[in-house]
Write a structure and sequence with these properties.
It contains 11 helices and 7 strands. It is an alpha/beta fold and 306 residues long. It has one domain: 3-Layer(aba) Sandwich (Rossmann fold), CATH 3.40.50. Strands 3-2-1-4-5-7-6 form a 7-stranded mixed beta sheet, with helices on both faces. Helix 1 crosses helix 3, helix 3 crosses helix 10 and helix 5 crosses helix 6. It is globular, with a radius of gyration of 18 Å.
Length: 306
């Protein structure tokens, strides 16, 4: 949930080398003391950020108050890694309690239909719950997990089922800076991450470079903008369960209020599919989940051209 790692998703192996000791906190973008995650709208000078990340044609039609809200959301995205460091252990527990959470991650992993010995990247891997899905789906694969939160990675490294995964602390906006080579991966899974990117289009272009020709990517992500019903259900669940329970469990509602806002502002299904095509991906499609998350959480699948 990324310069940032993924946002709390219910509320974003080959080699035994484990990277991301406590000293690697420097790899993540430092939170700004002037821009708290629940901060107030900022000045007009930052509007270009909102326009670029959300699409100029969309943003140009919005009133100034909406532009300010979008801009503030962009600034808050840079605060997410620090928040995840603080709540990593409780975050992992919260997601395990979410009905369907692990099952849906497995669905997205399996929907990639990779070879058994594939080289796979889990981008924005967090505490490794999405990585567990990859390990289960592709037990002979070489798997690397990258995340911007060293606290989350430290927790992921303690899980016995992930002992053969290589973990790297780095920025999903610039994965090559963390040593990830271009055209190396048969598949990339990004769960609850693209929504948190300050510049999703730039991020998509860089992810495309990581895939081998013909490689597959799966975005496991929220998208409610195309459906009033899905949007209403999401805001009901977020407002009555996710935010209160998250605040009670972690001592703060900041990350969970950011989650609700970021989901509400993220692309609709069709808009995100168009964004993927514009970034150079092909064979773009969407597959649904079940339960209360049907129409709310999706698998977006795409491929790099041969």
């Amino acid at each position: 949930m990324s310069t940032v790692s993924r946002s709390a998703p219910w509320v974003q192996p080959g080699t035994p080398v484990l990277i991301a000791s406590p000293s690697t906190k420097a790899c993540m973008r430092k939170p700004s003391t002037s821009a708290p995650i629940d901060g107030a709208p900022r000045e007009n000078g930052h509007f270009a950020l909102a326009l670029r990340a959300n699409g100029a044609s969309q943003a140009a039609e919005l009133p100034v108050s909406s532009l300010r809200e979008m801009n503030d959301l962009q600034l808050r995205k840079t605060q997410v890694p620090g928040e995840f460091d603080r709540i990593a252990l409780r975050y992992d527990l919260l997601n395990r309690l979410n009905p369907g959470y692990r099952k849906h991650l497995h669905w997205s992993a399996e929907r990639m239909e990779l070879a058994r010995n594939a080289n796979v990247l889990d981008l924005c891997c967090g505490t490794g719950l999405s990585t567990e899905a990859l390990v289960d789906a592709y037990p002979e694969a070489t798997i690397t997990g990258l995340d911007a939160s060293s606290g989350m990675l430290e927790l992921a490294k303690t899980k016995p089922q992930l002992e053969r995964v290589r973990f790297v602390c780095g920025d999903a906006m610039n994965p090559r800076s963390a040593g990830l080579a271009p055209a190396r991966y048969d598949g990339v899974l990004m769960a609850y991450g693209i929504r948190n990117m300050p510049d999703p289009d730039l991020c998509l272009g860089r992810i495309l470079e990581l895939l081998k020709p013909g490689g597959t990517i799966a975005f496991h992500e929220y998208s409610v903008a195309d459906s009033r019903v899905s949007r209403a259900i999401w805001n009901l669940v977020a407002g009555t369960i996710i935010i209160p329970f998250g605040a009670l469990t972690t001592g703060s509602s900041k990350l969970f209020r950011y989650l609700r806002s970021s989901v509400n502002h993220f692309d609709g299904v069709e808009a995100f599919k168009k964004r993927l095509l514009a970034a150079g991906f092909i064979d773009v499609r969407e597959e649904p989940m079940d339960g209360w998350q049907r129409g709310i959480v999706h698998t977006f699948l795409a491929a790099r051209p041969q």
